[in-house]
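Recap from last week: sequence in, structure out.
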Amino acid sequence: MFDDDRLYDVAVTFVHGIGDINAKKLISHFGSAKNMFHSSYKQLKSVQGIGEVVASRLYSNFESALVAAEEELKYVYANDVGFVTFADDAYPERLRECADSPAILYYKGMPDFSSRHIVSIVGTRNATKYGVEFCNEFVAELANRYPDAIVVSGLAYGIDVTAHKAALENNLKTWAVLGHSLETIYPSLHKKVADKMLASNGALISDFPHGTKIDPSNFVRRNRIVAGLCDALLVVESGEKGGSIITANIANNYNKDVFALPGNVTSTYSKGCNRLIKTNRANLCESFDDFEYIMNWTSRTQSKMPTLDFQFELTADEKKVTDVLAKYEFLDIDNLRRQTETTPNELSLILLQLEMKGAIVSLPGKIFSLKR
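Predicted structure tokens:
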């Protein structure tokens, strides 16, 4: 029913007690999840850092993990959910560099993980007028100077949802990293925002399989994805403790550029930001210019849709592919297949024909773009 390799790729995340770090270690050691499942207990325990106890626990859970993975794939394919595993070329390279990154990401929508400018924005759920106004102004200027930028946040109350809404209002794509599985939106009040994100080529992202109940500890766990997916993290208002400070600390550990909005020393919701700046864990950000100066990005205005004037006439199927690629700077093969509604074999043939005609460029990691 399912691609054999994909079944094993998902199953590794259902092995009880394996964890993301060990899962990635074992996949790297054996070359694939399938090879890991076909390994012996002796081979498992010989892997550095695994040992007899962990190897025994893993080996005894292989069968149940495959059953769980089959159920997960049934749900995924029936509900238009995509996924990417650590072993895939399409796995986000920014996240791959993080030691505790998830072994799998589920998503709805069309996240282009190869995008050039990704900014995560987080902050207090109890945002003040000061924080909301700064967030709106920052995102508006981000869109003005970097129209290909993507805004990442957590869809929570306060600064999170403000960042998502500001991105939508300024025609930027925006991704929400959820602390639960994709069939749920929490808080439910933000479902309309989530729907609009998907309708605007944004995405909902989670490392939790379907049916995962809402649990406060999971929201802390998702912070590593918010921190790992981005080029830079901006904290807009935060108390001295809480999820935003945790995310900033994780981003620092990942060697990301971290920024914070300073505030009144008597304001509860500026104390966290002020401390981040004071302890050199965040760059001071009073305006978008501060952010741009540190990031040293090359600003560019909205590029016009390329004129598709090819030397050879395109077939209807080829034009369908080039029309999709015209909307993106780069697009990986899985997202391209979903948007064009073609089979893997059909798409491979079309891409080959387009390359021969000089219409597209093939990049490492099965990523494609129009030849401009």
